[in-house]
Amino acid sequence: MAFDFEKQSNDWSSKSSYGTTWPKSLLVFALVFLVLTVAVKFGFDFLNQQQRSLIQKEDQKIELEKQSFPVENQKAVITFQKSVKNLNVLLENKIKTSEFLLSIANNTHKEIYFTQLNADTKENAIEINGVATNLGVISQAASAFSNMDGVTNVEVKNARNVGSNVTFTLGLIVNSSFFK
Length: 180
Known about the structure:
2 domains, 51% helix
């Protein structure tokens, strides 16, 4: 609508040829949106029903297979499955004695021999009784054990002179990964 400033009109009540169209557009949009929403809902319901019928058919096939499989074999399979699960648990928690004994043997001083070894996996502790030629050798052994991977603390206890040798006890505190 253009205004003509030269021609003055005293009649402001005249209707223009332009009407407002936004209510009609909003109504059309709402109707289209409603139709689309209803169509999508029915479409999803149809797809869900199809999938449910497929699942129901597969469940029926499974039931038929279960009925054709003998009960004795079912029990055997279940027992086998439980055994495998128990073995997996045991393998995850097993103690690899050969590996931690080998690491202790590799870090043992030449002038020391051990008389007893006690390992407590719950407390993550190893106690080693042994005989050495002197206290310096025991100190070197304690230093070597403290530098091992997985050992957090080394303690020398009960060192006693017995003739020309020294008896002792080494206490090792280790990480739980040391035994695995």
